[in-house]
Structure formats: C-alpha cells, structure tokens
From TrEMBL:
The lineage of its organism: Bacteria, Bacillati, Bacillota, Bacilli, Bacillales. PANTHER family: RING-CLEAVING DIOXYGENASE MHQE-RELATED. Gene3D superfamilies: 2,3-Dihydroxybiphenyl 1,2-Dioxygenase, domain 1. Keywords: Dioxygenase, Oxidoreductase. It holds the Pfam family Glyoxalase. Residues 7-131, 152-269 form the VOC domain. This is Glyoxalase/bleomycin resistance protein/dioxygenase. The keyword Oxidoreductase applies. GO terms for molecular function: dioxygenase activity.
C-alpha cells in the first residue's frame, strides 16, 4: 500500500500557565483561540487550540497547560522547532513585533530561507519564515493585521535519536519527498501548501525529556475517516503499532511512536471546530464531550479563568 499525507494537521505541546499561553499565542502571535476544551484523560486541565480563522488543518497548535508541571528539555524524540509561515515581505514586521514584546530572537538561514527563531514563555522553540505558498489568514487580532498574519505552519524540525530510520519513515510510510540536503539538515516535503516542510538533522539528537516547553506529538493529515482507516492498516503493514482510532471530537486520531522516538498521530481533517460552536463564536465557551457534561460544574471550578485580550503593548 502506498500512502501520502498532505502534511501536518496539528502540533501539541505542554506549558504551565494557561493565561500566559493565551497571551502569547493570541496576544503576541495573533492566532485565534478556536477551541477551549479539556484534556479528555485529565479533565482538570485545559486543552487549548489556536489556529487561523477556522482552525484549518495545518494551522493548529494545541496545548495542555499543567500549572505544576516540570520543565522539559527539548531533544531527541521530539519536534525540536515548530515553524510558522507568514506572507512574503512581512518578516520585518515580525522582527519589530518580537522586539516590541521583548521576545529574544535570532536570525538564521536554512535552505536559502531566513528564519526568526525564538521561544515562548515556557521555552517551546518556534520560528517564523516567509513563503508565497499558502492561503492568507483572514484573522486579525491586536496589533497583527490580516496582511501580516501567520498563515499556519511552515513545517517543523524533527529531532530524532535515529535519523536514518526517521528519514525512511518520512519517505516510505508518510509519503514525503526528500527535496534536498544542506549541512546538518535533510529536507522533506509533502503536498499541501502549508505544514509541508520537514527539516531533519542528519545526526542523532540526544534524548529530550517531556515537560513544559516541549512538544508532546506531531499529527499528520488524513482526508476523511475512510482514508484514516487505510492509514491505520498502512502503519501496521509498515511494522509499527498504532493505537485504536480515538474520537477527539474535532477529528479522529491514531497514535504510534516512530523509531527515532517521536510520537506521531494521524488525524482526520473533518469534522473540524465548528461542529459544536458557530464559526464566529469559536473558542468563546468551554466545550466538553457529552460524557463529561454531567460533571461540568466540578470541571469548570477546577479550571483557571482565561481570556483572549489585547495586550498592553498593542493597546498603547
């Protein structure tokens, strides 16, 4: 069986403070909080989703804010850097914006592209790159206008403890195409316009440790439930051991760990985030799966209040 994912569906990470998380990704980066729900396995913890105006696949970063979690260490077996793509010509805007919010950054070049690399408040490694490809975001917030807004993921840098095996997986299981090698990186590309570029260090990266400021997993796109079932069969035939398919309300998911230590998910594009909220009201209410509704009062009492707000630097 030959399969080919369109690209990244979402990336999920751990942080500590829920309001700081909202302030950074909505307030500083200008993303939309498209869903405010809970960790289905630990309902006392939020699960927050940020993306474009509708939370399109390829734009979604999600977080579990655990207030007392340990600090993680970014390393092998993780997504090392999450890449965001912005419209061509907008990198000076983002450089000025990071300065405005006192976010330390450095500029680097990889495969002929200039990246602004920085960290969020918990140390999660991020970068911004300009590209022509990808539909412009229609979401503007705070000091981020539509014409400068993040389109979605540019891709990711994967830190593998066994890069040869991860490279084989990317090409022969996930269906990405190797498009180049430069210095310490090999580059792979999928078919989508965003969330489509993976850079892989060709040398093994020492193991990281999970915790705040690290990525838990990277999810790849399946077009629908029928294709998702074929993906599960394909992953099994390729020698991996995926979980059963799980209902995550806004997509269906299966998980497996590749040989370089990175936790992969395959997630369906539908049904999306408007299944339980109107498109113009996404992220406004805490949404619970039906099996938790009877406990709503207890759950909401345990969750700290959060709000999407224009930050002082943009209000001046």
């Amino acid at each position: 069986m030959t399969k080919q994912t369109a690209g990244i569906h979402h990336i999920t990470a751990f942080v500590r403070n829920a309001q700081e998380n909202v302030d950074f990704y909505a307030g500083v980066l200008g993303l939309r909080l498209v869903k405010k729900t809970i960790n289905f396995d630990a309902p006392e913890v939020y699960h927050l989703y940020f993306g474009d105006q509708q939370g399109s696949p390829g734009t979604i970063i999600t977080f579990f804010p655990w207030a007392n979690s340990r600090k993680g260490r970014v390393g092998g077996g993780q997504v090392g850097i999450t890449s965001y793509v912005v419209p061509t010509g907008s990198l000076p805007f983002w450089e000025a914006r990071l300065q405005k919010f006192n976010v330390a950054y450095e500029t680097t070049v990889r495969f002929g592209e200039t990246y602004l690399q920085f960290e969020d408040r918990d140390g999660l490694k991020l970068e911004i790159v300009e590209r022509e490809a990808g539909a412009p975001s229609q979401w503007a917030f705070g000091g981020v206008p539509v014409d400068k807004a993040i389109k979605g993921f540019g891709g990711a840098v994967l830190y593998s403890t066994a890069p040869d095996k991860t490279a084989h997986l990317l090409e022969h299981v996930m269906g990405l195409r190797k498009v180049g090698q430069e210095g310490v990186y090999a580059r792979y590309q999928s078919t989508a316009d965003i969330g489509n570029v993976i850079d892989l260090p060709v040398q093994a990266v020492p193991h990281g440790t999970g915790g705040a400021g690290t990525v838990h997993h990277i999810a790849w796109r399946a077009a629908d439930d029928a294709e998702h079932a074929l993906w599960r069969e394909h992953v099994v035939q390729s020698g991996f051991h995926p979980t059963p398919i799980v209902d995550r309300q806004y997509f269906h998911a299966l998980y497996f760990r590749e040989e370089g230590g990175i936790l992969f998910e395959i997630a369906t594009d539908p049904p999306g985030f408007a299944r339980d909220e109107a498109p113009d009201a996404l992220g406004e209410e805490i949404k619970l799966p039906e099996w938790f509704e009877e406990h709503r009062g207890q759950i909401e009492a345990l969750l700290p209040p959060i709000q999407v707000r224009v930050l002082e630097e943009d209000a001046q």
